[in-house]
């Protein structure tokens, strides 16, 4: 509903850079409309000075070349690159500021159990073909301890080590067999135990 005499922001043209407010945008539009280059130049410099002082540390930033570059880029953007003046810096790359980055792809790889995560399953695949040796032994130890941490965080049982040994053999197609009589897991600190107990209570 539109009521005569009332002017809502939702009915106005969308701002290019909302952080400066509609007043600065109006000033830039006014600068574009001035008839002479001298007038436009003076008006633009005044607007940039106002924009610099709007920041909490504006007075200090007026001597910062990178900061002033950003302000002139913003002036060019808000004018739609229609402001005919002698810019004190190159604003040809200003359009990149308003370009939204491409959305990142979310990994949708299907894995048998979610609590281990995609990274651990990639390690399982690597372990399948790794030759025996210190490097594989170290990776097995790191993987087994991470598996136990994941199970403790999400599991409800108590035989975590047995579950790790079973799953590690299963998901590496039998390539990795842990002997629980000789294999030594890292000690569980008090925070991990407390966190696990709290989850069990909530369930």
Unreliable sequence segments: 6-11
Per DSSP E runs of 2 or more residues, the count of β-strands stands at 0
Distance between the termini: 50 Å
Radius of gyration: 31 Å
Mean pLDDT: 81
Instruction: State the major sheet.
Output: none
Number of helices: 8
List the secondary-structure elements in sequence, H or E. Answer: HHHHHHHH
Class inferred from helices and paired strands: mainly alpha
- Silhouette: rod-shaped
Beta-strand percentage range:
under 5%
Q: How would you describe this structure to a colleague?
A:
- By secondary structure, this protein is mainly α.
- It contains eight helices and no strands.
- It has helices at 21-33, 37-54, 58-61, 65-78, 117-129, 134-154, 160-171, 190-202.
- The longest helix has 21 residues, at 134-154.
- It starts with 20 loop residues before the first helix and ends with a helix.
- Mean pLDDT is 81; it is low at 6-11.
Summarize the structure.
The protein is mainly α. The chain has helices at 21-33, 37-54, 58-61, 65-78, 117-129, 134-154, 160-171, 190-202. The two termini are 50 Å apart.
How would you describe this structure in keywords?
mainly alpha; 8 helices; 53% helix; rod-shaped
């Amino acid at each position: 509903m539109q009521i005569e005499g009332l002017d809502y922001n939702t009915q106005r043209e969308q701002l290019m850079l909302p952080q400066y407010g509609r007043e600065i945008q109006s000033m830039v539009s006014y600068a574009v409309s001035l008839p002479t280059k001298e007038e436009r130049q003076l008006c633009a410099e005044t607007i940039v000075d106002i924009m610099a002082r709007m920041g909490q540390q504006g007075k200090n930033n007026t001597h910062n070349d990178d900061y002033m570059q950003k302000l002139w880029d913003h002036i060019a953007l808000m004018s739609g690159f229609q402001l005919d003046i002698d810019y004190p810096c190159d604003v040809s790359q200003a359009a990149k500021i308003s370009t939204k980055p491409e959305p990142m792809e979310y990994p949708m790889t299907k894995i048998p159990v979610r609590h281990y995560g995609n990274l651990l399953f990639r390690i399982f695949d690597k372990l399948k073909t790794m030759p025996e040796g210190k490097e594989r032994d170290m990776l097995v130890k790191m993987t087994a301890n991470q598996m136990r941490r994941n199970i403790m965080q999400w599991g409800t049982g108590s035989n975590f080590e047995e579950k790790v040994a079973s799953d590690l053999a299963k998901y590496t197609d039998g390539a990795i067999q842990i002997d629980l009589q000789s294999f030594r897991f890292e000690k569980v600190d008090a925070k991990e135990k407390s966190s696990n107990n709290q989850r069990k209570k909530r369930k």
